[in-house]
C-alpha cells in the first residue's frame, strides 16, 4: 500500500522518467601516487629482487679467494719443506764427505811420512844433517804441508822448515803425547793434522819427525 502522506511533488521526483537513465552516485576516485614515489618503489623492489644475486656473487668471490689463498699457502709450505729437506740432505752429505776426506787424508799422510822418516833415519846414521834439511825443503812444497821439523833426542828442535823454531824446546809447539809416543801418533789441532813419527836407530832413538798437514789447503 503506497504511502499517501508524502507530498505529491516528492513522489513525482522519485518516479523514473522513461528513456532517461537515473544518475548514479559519484564514487570518489583513488588518489594517484606521485610519479617520483612510484619510481623509488620500483627501484627498491628491483634492488630487493637483485640482492640474492649479489649475495651469491659475493659468496663465489669469497670462495675463490679462499681457494687461491689456500693454494698459495700450501705451495709455500711445500716449497719450504723441500728446501729444508734438501738442506738437511746436503748437510749430511757434506758431513759424510768431510769425514771420508779426513780419513783419507790421515791415511795418505801416514803413507807419505814413513818413506820420509826412513830417508831421515838413513841420513842421520851417516851424520848428514844437511841432506835431511834438503828433504824437508822439498817435502814442504807439497800441497797441504804447512811445516816439517825434527826434534832431537834432547827435546829441542834440530831442524825445521821455519828457521825461527830451531834450537827451541819442542814441547812449546808439540804436545807431550806426540813427543813421548813410542809409535806413530796423529793429532788434529784446529783443523790441521799433526803427525809424529819416531826415528829409531839401531839401539836408540835418533829423533822425532813432526809434520803439520792441512787437508783443506788449496795449493
Summarize the structure.
The chain is built from four helices and five strands. It is of the alpha+beta class and 219 residues long.
Please give the largest β-sheet: 5 strands, antiparallel
Specify Rg, calculated over alpha carbons: 57 Å
- Strand arrangement within the widest β-sheet reads 2-1-5-4-3
Helix content: 40-55%
Task: Tell me the CATH superfamily.
Answer: PAS domain
Number of domain modules: 1
- Extended strand count: 5
Order of helices and strands: HHHEEHEEE
Number of helices: 4
Report what the structure shows.
The chain is of the alpha+beta class and 219 residues long. It has a single domain (48-219), classed as 2-Layer Sandwich (Beta-Lactamase), CATH 3.30.450.20. It has 4 helices and 5 strands, in the order αααββαβββ. It has a 5-stranded antiparallel beta sheet with strand order 2-1-5-4-3. Strand 3 and strand 4 form a beta hairpin. Helix 2 runs antiparallel to helix 3 (129-139).
